[in-house]
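User: Please predict structures.

Assistant: First:
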Amino acid sequence: MGMNNEQVDILILSNGPGEVTTWVRPVVESLRQQLGEDRERVRISVVLSPCPNATGKEAAIARSYPQVDRVQAAEHFFPFLLSGKTAQNWDWRDKGVVLFLGGDQFYTVIIGKRLGYRTVVYAEWDARWHNWIDRFGVMKEEIALKASPKYAPKFTVVGDLMAEATSKELSQLPITDYPLPTELIGLLPGSKPAKLAQGVPFCLAIAQRLHSVRPQSRFVIPVAPTLDLTTLASFADPNHNPLIQQFGWGCAELIIPSNSNSPFLKTPTGLCVELFTQFPAYDLLSQCRLCLTTVGANTAELGSLAVPMIVLLPTQQLDAMRSWDGLPGLLANLPGVGSVFAKAINSLVLRQGRLFAWPNKWANSQIVPELVGNLQPQAVANLVIDYLDYPQKLEAMRSNLRHVRGNPGASQKLAQLVLEELSLFDTQSPSITPNIAHP
């Protein structure tokens, strides 16, 4: 089935790298599957808003999706929010839907009202503005139960977009076949300078200790697509990263083999940490016995893959963590004075004893260890060894991670909500019918 000649716009609001890669991509694929490829009838636009975790490449990633027709970068967002005009003065069709896939849900309300469009919000953790949003697609039923019963018809449990993204990638990517005796440990030190300055040498120091005790272990860093190898290696160089000398953490040099083998970081003790540059790295991560990671989107992706992890928040450099949402995130990332704000905000947050890793937030309990404070590589390595020596602990963590995530299939259900809202423009004669391609 198709749709008549009526033209509609779907405007997707998103922000950070995690949302653009794991939420936007599967949803635009499902939208095209259900609504067809005719761009004269259905046009998909992506507008990005500022995000503390942004790398500056989110717009380019969104433009790479063939299902998307137009993309506006985050630097042009607030003029659009205030005036309704995009940087390229886009035209807007009479009928459409604003679909929230990251950022501030209130933006959906404002832009939906301005354009006269229906509004759909994907709520992974929290659903807001119940009175003004038309439909909510939520990850789990608990989110809907927080709302007043009078808004219940607006809520649909669609499942977990991130779980769908990871499972889809796993089904499409070739699996890196590590030998069974290999004990693969993933190191995820972050992707931005403030985190890398701590994360790279700290993880290297832990890896060196582990390798001396368990020589069968192999270590790998999945390199973020926004990070080049030379920049990554500079954080393992004592001449460029003073924290290495200050705290006695690990150092390494970048080795790029002349053959087809992967590049790696080599420490003075001979330990080699492979650098995995394919993205996304779900196939690799799914084979890891355990991962050491910073806070952020990494923890959500690992949780979706049910990969055991230990989350590291060393406070030796208090201004390293600047990924807060809302005003705290904006203050912590201000040029020049951001470091002062970051230290104050982080000191306050750490005293509150809050949970940081996404799986722990979802479960409202610490199902994966969060190590916070003046961490030492030796102590972290000992904890990792304890987990590796008792694999039943790792299996229990895997089980808990599987339990807290929502069901897959979210993108198709979310696309169906968009389709239903488009049809509501003419309830007497719905103008849009699904175009579902059956396998």
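Second:
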Amino acid sequence: MSRWRELPADLHPHIHQLIVRLRKLKDRSQLSARQLASKSGYSARSWQRYLNGRSLPPRKAVEAMARIGGDDPARLLVLHEIAAERWAEGRVATAGDPESTSSITPGSAPATPAPTHPPPPTERKRYGRYLHVLVTAGAAALVLSVSATVLLSMRLSEARAQLAKDRTDTVAAAPATVSESLVPVVYTCRLEQTDGRWYAGLSRTTETILAYTHVGPEVAEAQCLLRRAGMSPGDIDGVFGPKTQRAVVRLQTRDELVVDGVIGPHTWKALREAAPK
């Protein structure tokens, strides 16, 4: 488990939530910074900025971390969209802060006071036209700002609704993990081939993400198919333990897949269509 630096105190809660989630996935993968860079395509220095809150990771980096850590990319991308909006809001607020541009460089001369005598009539007319232009431009900017705020609020509401739906679906569909109260179960493999694909009678999934410590019939289905492919996962107990993970790695190596020890759509396809060894 990595010992992370404390995130900046002024970081928005949505950005904080995304970074904490990415940190947990990095810890789960047990990869070093160089290994993470090799698997994700983003440098170790970039990941250091992302995971310490100094820079917002791009969408592709979030997808890569979800794949490496065995998480659902859809949930992380919803968090990333909300965090990106908050990050953009923070940058706009910083750029518009008058204090950031009104400081006086040390050693510079003080401004010359304006003359006290009134300007000539020509100058007053020019000033009036200039003031009119400023007021018109300010009104237009205000309308655009209000429109942008309304649009941003609508998008944020949609993103929050989608996030709530994804969380509900995930609670209902995500595999359980190993716990102290887990009761040992022995599953029976009933292998059959349908339309060129193999099934063991425990689950017909082709997309469920399974990783280390997951339990349930989906894991038992994968164990049956691993055994049929000649990669012994140990007992068919529905527990994604070390033996099952090593069997997955051997299958991924043999079939030239991404070797991460996680069962995803590509590994499921290899299990369903693999010839027995």
